[in-house]
Design a protein that fits this description.
3 strands; single chain; 15% strand; three-stranded antiparallel beta sheet; alpha+beta
Length: 91
């Protein structure tokens, strides 16, 4: 079995994914899905929302096997964080 090679650099994948999220997806998902994860195909704009990145990515790959995936935690600046959050910040 061969390993799939990325078509874009990490920086380009991030740029494309963030752009698609802001332009096409955010308004549709943010109100009802805060804290969940959206996996985005940075080529087609297809996406899936789930409680974690692995499940969202697997669901997206099931329909788009060649997807180049970027994940965003809905309503947060980062997908993951290290350490404790600030006082009053959702965890």
């Amino acid at each position: 079995m061969s390993v799939k090679q990325p078509r874009y650099s990490a920086e380009e994948t991030a740029r494309r994914g963030d752009e698609i999220y802001e332009r096409q997806i955010r308004a549709q998902v943010e109100a009802d899905n805060r804290g969940r994860v959206v996996a985005i195909d940075v080529e087609s704009g297809a996406y899936r929302v789930d409680d974690n990145a692995l499940v969202a990515s697997e669901r997206l790959l099931a329909e788009h096997p060649e997807a180049e995936i970027w994940c965003v935690r809905i309503g947060h600046r980062a997908l993951h964080r290290i350490g404790r959050g600030l006082a009053g910040e959702p965890t």
